[in-house]
Amino acid sequence: MTTTITCGNFKGGVGKTSNTLMLAYTLSKMNKKVLVVDLDPQANGTDLLLATMTNVYQQKPEFKETLFEAIKNNNPKEAVIHVKPNLDLLPSYSDLQGFEKFLYDNFSNDFEQDHFFNKFISEFKQQYDYVFLDIPPQLNKFTDSALVASDYVIIVLQTQERALKGAEKYVQHLLELQEDYDLNIDLLGILPVLQQNGSELDLDVVQDAIDSFGKSNMFNNHIKQMARLKRFDRTGITDNVKDVNDRRVHDVYQTLAEEVIERINIFEGGK
């Protein structure tokens, strides 16, 4: 059974892409077959995974066409890049900026526009255990397309006030979309990230999030600030067991991935 997850927030720069890719990478190490779909024209997720291929695995990325070309040709497999064992990528490129116009030109109403991507990906994604959708931080057709195609949403919450407001607006939009389209999608949890140890402001924002969303909707694991995560953007995702900083990062995400699986099992057990 395939589980599709969107990580989101309506504020940019909250660590959404980094956490999406680290979860995907970690699950692939746990012998889960994982697909990352970069549905963001900025292509930050694609850049990171291609850097991982080139710098870490010494592999030259090869693919036949961009994701947007695959969308227009209705054939996702033509755009797939095999990043590493158990981890594939549908890569973004600048031409993906035409996605919204493509939807407006080909479909006459919001329902058809917002459900197109789910139909495009639905059969192809069945060969994976997990599919992660990385999207822009705006309210647009990229966001709505991803949410319609998802089983779960993780709200990535940088521990600052603007990110909390963005999270609240995101959850509100999720609930509205769920009601409009009768979606079977659940909030997997709120994930606090980029926390500074001992910062009173960070702790205050986390408490405000608990008050707003409820403690049960908060991930038990919080992601602290780690310089190695920033380094990955330049080097690709390194995983050197002899490097204490690499080990620390991967141990954190191993624990988080286990909590993601546990939360999904709770939801599935209740259905």
From TrEMBL:
It holds the Pfam family AAA_31. InterPro entries: AAA_dom (IPR025669), DNA_Partitioning_ATPase (IPR050678), P-loop_NTPase (IPR027417). CDD domains: ParAB_family. Residues 3-183 form the AAA domain. This is ParA family protein.
